[in-house]
Amino acid sequence: MTDSSLVLVANAGDGSISTFRLSGDSIERLAVSGGLPGCSSFVADSARDLVYAAVKGGSDAEPAGIVTLRLDRETGRLDPVSRLDLPDGGMNYLALCRDGAGLLGASYGGGYGISCAVADGVVGAPVSRIEFPNLHAVLPSADGRFAYFVSLGADLVAQYALTDDLRLVALEPATVAAPEGSGPRHLVINDAQDAVYVLTEFSGQVLHFARDAEAGTLELRDAADAFDPSKGLHHSRFGADPRAEHLIWGADLHFGAGGRRLWCSERTESTLGAVSVADDGSVSAPERFVETEPQPRGFALSPDGAHLIAAGERSTTISLYAVDGDRLELLRRAETGRGANWVRFV
């Protein structure tokens, strides 16, 4: 990482994205770009200074969609470039593939996933569409040959090959099961591309899937709890109110420490904890937890792993931490906006 980095934070409650500059252990808000109703996910093409933001629709005249924004790295402003309407429901997760030439999306409310071609920042109409209940995330393999969609509603990961024209072709088998009632939510793929890790919302676990890099298929190997056992949380279920019933509410996960730890957030008790990843890819529960911003749906680690920034859905601030192994030291807080839920370094 250079001496300074830009960080983007989506504020769903305000329909905006805040741009921050991280310099050393200090963070400064540069700009807030509005006009993005319900923005709950975005992905950045840092090489081209383009950001693709998922927005919710307010009416038939303004359906949900994906808005392309151009980032001014000096001012932090994000200016609209183009828009793709999505009348069947907005995206809850976006991911780029093929060096920015393709875009993948997962829609929780719509129960569908898409693949689109991208040219000069313009997202084309979907070339492929798949359907599973409550799709929550999608990621491609590093080589752009495969894509993995997580279905919270069906407790599975759907696995696909990506053709040259970005069509999704189901592998054999087409899906790999997660534990029943676990609610798989977000996923990451390790640098070696031989393992996929999924955080579950209802059981608060990190699931470790071994990955065949050539065939693209996954196999569930082991799991570890990622929630604080001292808080008395109980297994959640679809449709429950986690806060009212004091239930597990897993949210986001990201690699740290060169892939040796997986930081995870839990929203009911507003904690962050680092799951350990062994040499063989197996996982073990965190040894300590840090209380962070209220209801931490999203967070991110700096490219060098030295800093972590967390946002909370029930907060208007973000927290900047120094990372030391599996410990976090709070350095600063900064104002961002209402309903902050997505954090990315660009």
Sheet bearing the most strands, described? 5 strands, antiparallel
Ends distance:
11 Å
Structural class comes to: mainly beta
Please tell me how large the radius of gyration is. Answer: 19 Å
Mean pLDDT: 97
User: What is the strand tally?
Assistant: 30
Q: Give the overall silhouette.
A: globular
Q: Give the count of helical stretches.
A: 1
Beta-strand level of the residues, as a percent range?
over 45%
Fraction of residues in helices? under 10%
Low-pLDDT parts are none
Question: Can you put this structure into words, describing what you see?
Answer:
There is one protein chain. The protein is mainly β and 346 residues long. 1% of the residues lie in helices and 55% in strands. The strands form seven sheets. Strands 8, 9, 10, 11 and 12 form a five-stranded antiparallel β-sheet that branches. It has one helix and 30 strands. The model has no long low-confidence stretch (mean pLDDT 97).
Name its key features:
about 55% strand, about 350 residues, mainly beta, single chain, five-stranded antiparallel beta sheet, 30 strands
Short description:
The protein is an all-beta fold and 346 residues long. The protein has one helix spanning 242-245, and strands at 4-11, 16-23, 26-33, 41-45, 50-55, 64-71, 78-86, 93-97, 102-107, 112-119, 122-123, 128-131, 135-140, 146-151, 156-162, 168-177, 184-189, 195-200, 205-211, 218-225, 250-256, 261-266, 271-277, 283-284, 289-291, 298-301, 307-311, 317-324, 327-335, 340-345. The mean pLDDT is 97.
